Amino acid sequence: MPKQTFTAAEASRALGISLDTLRRWDRAGRIRVERDAANRRVVPASEVERLRGEDGSVVFSARNRFRGVVRAIEVDGLLAKVEIDVTEPARVVAIITRESAEELALKPGMSAAGVVKSTSVMVER
Questions:
Q1: End-to-end Cα distance, the chain
Q2: Rounded to whole angstroms, how far apart are CA atoms 24 and 45?
Q3: How many alpha carbons fall within 13 Å on the CB side of residue 108?
Q4: Structure-model confidence comparison of residues 116 and 44, the more confident one
Q5: What is the H or E stretch that residue 105 is in?
Q6: Are residues 24 and 47 in the same domain?
Q7: Number of folded domains in the chain?
Q8: What is the pLDDT of residue 88?
Q9: CB 3.0 to 4.6 Å from 114: which of 17, 25, 52, 66, for a disulfide?
Q10: Are 56 and 15 spatial neighbours (Cβ–Cβ below 8 Å)?
Q11: Is residue 59 assigned to a domain?
Q12: CATH of the domain at 69
């Protein structure tokens, strides 16, 4: 039988975020958590699935993933500039290869995520 709940540490690993981020999301109401008998956070499996996206796969180990809508794509030679309006009042801009943009089949108005790790911004669908 599949796991029904995750500890906070398990959920943060499954989501590719830090435990501190999970706690902040809880306080901000961005993630639904429950409390066990010892008042520890437990996260329903359905909530982890909701936050992981449509297919539930996590490819990157990055801690910060910003889901949003593609605003624009500018292709110039081998590079493509992708602008994503994220759910916070912000925008993520990434310079990726043209081949990557074509493989992702990005179009303005579609869902995408900017994945921030160190000083790099990656794009996933």
A1: 29
A2: 19
A3: 7
A4: 44
A5: none
A6: yes
A7: 2
A8: 62
A9: 66
A10: no
A11: no
A12: 2.40.50.100
Is 92's pLDDT higher than 80?
no
Residue 48, phi then psi, degrees to nearest 5: -60, -45
On whether the pTM is more than 0.85, the answer is: no
Contacts of 43 (CB under 8 A, 6+ apart): 5, 6, 7, 8, 10, 11, 22, 31, 32, 33, 34
Structural domain containing residue 38: 5-52
Among 121, 117, 81, CA closest to 101: 81
Cα–Cα distance, 107 to 56 (Å, whole number) = 22
**Residue 52 pLDDT:** 78
Same domain flag for 42 and 68: no
Amino acid occupying residue 71:
R
Same structural domain for residues 69 and 114? yes
- Do 116 and 86 share a domain, yes or no? yes
Separation CA 35–CA 52 (nearest Å): 21
Which class for 119: exposed (0-12), middle (13-18), buried (19 or more C-beta within 10 A)? exposed
